[in-house]
Specification:
Elements: E1 11-12, E2 15-16, H1 25-40, H2 42-56, E3 62-64, H3 67-72, E4 75-80, H4 90-103, E5 108-113, H5 117-129, E6 132-138, H6 139-144, H7 146-154, E7 158-162, H8 169-182, E8 187-189, H9 200-208, H10 210-223, E9 230-234, H11 239-245, E10 255-263, H12 274-277, E11 279-283, E12 286-290, H13 315-322, E13 326-332, H14 333-347, H15 353-360, E14 372-377, H16 385-389
Helix pairs in contact: 2-4, 4-5, 4-9, 5-7, 9-11, 10-11, 14-15
Bound molecules: pyridoxal-5'-phosphate (PLP).
Length: 398
Amino acid sequence: MKTYHVNENGYYGEFGGAYIPEILHRCVEDLKDNYLKALESESFRQEYAQLLRDYVGRPSPLYLTGRLSRKYGCRIYLKREDLNHTGAHKINNTIGQILLARRMGKTRIIAETGAGQHGVATATVCALMDMECIVYMGTTDVERQQPNVRKMQMLGAKVVPVTSGNMTLKDATNEAIRDWCCHPSDTFYIIGSTVGPHPYPDMVARLQSVISEEIKKQLAGCEGRDYPDYLVACVGGGSNAAGTIYHYIDDERVNIVLAEAGGKGVYSGMSAATIQLGKKGILHGACTLVMQSEDGQIEEPYSISAGLDYPGIGPIHANLYASKRATILAVDDHEALAAAFELTRLEGIIPALESAHALGALGKLTFRPEDVVVVTLSGRGDKDMDTYLNTHTYGLQV
Ligand SMILES: *Cc1c(COP(=O)(O)O)cnc(C)c1O
């Protein structure tokens, strides 16, 4: 049977693998040898499930919208990852990885962050587990994401500003990899999305797969069938999308719709629509679609949403695109903003700007009245209030 899951060499079709410096070889091999055994062990599963329930607040609700459904003429459910502790899906992954780090005897945790959401989720679990925490963050992001920087510091993490390149996420990731090379034996690198060398994309997808596991149970309860007609999620690196589709990926009855950030327009030169603009290349340890110039230099992505402006994409998603399993839509800044205000006014829920890109895809699809649509609301909008309140600069009527 055809499957879209990873093969034993860490590939999804032609994408994936582990392209790493020699010095990290041992580390990554160790992780590869340990992660499945650990994740599938009874003691890990119990501890993980209990923290997801009592600490994160899972299962997150699957909410059938009323006014939003009427507007689009179908049955739209929201998977409420915005209600998790720390306000997004990222905590599902950091809890799993820190449990694994502890099992592997690591004492020092490093992470990269762009908007600061993954940094906060990592600093949170490091406080919980009493582990040293170092978060690399581009100086540009440190300046524009001050509330998250202060949260990380209050949680006890050391935030290291990175001044290379564009001083954003890509540069923070480079610096985290450099740190890892210097401390391969005692350090665990908690990657925040389905990116990086194998086994990270598969490990992060598995840790986020609780999202689709719950959707299945919840739909069976309220719709009498455990699958939807459409799954819709936004993609930065791809972790909330991977979690949303994980248990449906081989079920061809389910349409998969991935919303990437169009920025000011896919061909405007200011975009983060990596799947549509990217060419095959190697970024941060994996072969995937990468925004790059003719001679292979990484191009700077742009999106109004800091969580989506990454020049690469998970190898899972590159393969879903190449094999035509998923529909990829670019949602521009102004469309995401309009969708955020629409959800807020119709349902009383202020979404994260990233999640607003998934909502912005609804208007680009045609539904039948009986269609069941699940949109993953990856996070809440508190962190984006400044952007929302300044939207008059985008000419948006509020
Ligand atoms: C980080 C983030 C994203 C993008 O990351 P993925 O790995 O693509 O899920 C999306 N939504 C929110 C709320 C985030 O914090």
